[in-house]
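User: I'm writing a tutorial on reading structure tokens. Could you give me a worked example: one chain, its sequence, then its tokens, then a sentence or two explaining what the tokens reveal?
Assistant: Sure. Here is the example chain.
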Amino acid sequence: MVAQRAGAQSGQGGPSFTGVDCEILGCQPKPAMNRISACVITKNEERNLPRLLQSLRGIADEVVVVDSGSTDRTEAIARDYGAGFHFRSWTNYSEQRNFAASLACHDWALTVDADEELSSALQSAILCWKKRAPQFDVYEVARRTWYLGAWIKHSGWYPDWNERLYRKEAMRYAGLVHERLQYQGPCGRLGGDLLHYTIHDFAEHQANVERYSTLAAKRMYEEGKRHWRGALWFAVPWSLVHNYVVRGGFLDGYRGMLIARMAARAVRLKYAKLGQLLAAERKPGEQAK
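And here are its predicted structure tokens:
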């Protein structure tokens, strides 16, 4: 189901993707109007990667994995599933994703993370899309997150619309934090959910907040933002209220409260860290803004 919204190297063995069996047997692959290269960036994803690759079977015509230095079985798992495996030293999310797309053989790229999985409804939607002439150059999907033992249905986490399927020559990713595709024109929508197994325990959530708040502060600093004290005092309580009340976090029970509290903490940390960056460059006697 599609709706409108404005706006390499290959291993063998194990399960395989659309077209791989035909290549091994020496026959012609089944005709498909739209062929997809799934692009994944990884580092130490042996726990998550099999689930993702299994969900891509029969959907992706090729899988490109770009790894930034795994020390576990990530490479062996990728090759066992017939994915192309490539190494690139980590720079940022946008550049890693753009590099993966540059290695793709097909016109359409499907961006997925190792801790995600295509739901059966999303698989069906993509298979239907592959048989028809595309109406858009980019399509978004709803992402549903598994958090501390349950699916989150509110809290601003669902539906978390993400542009994931796109004609690769028409657009690129940009941004250091929460990278997004840069494109013009309308965006289509695919039915079904992209399942996201992002956080396994609260300590992992805390670590993510620390990491992303550091990146966010660096981005604001590089963009020339210099006013941070007012945002520190007013944006933090607003974030808590917005996520817990306006976005319906209270409907997710105690998990919704945790999400709202951690979102507010992320806001506080990014502005506090921006203040630290500004203090480091400030001349003696200069007043903070």
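What the tokens reveal: DSSP finds eight helices and twelve strands in the chain. The domain at 2-199 is CATH 3.90.550.10 (Spore Coat Polysaccharide Biosynthesis Protein SpsA; Chain A).
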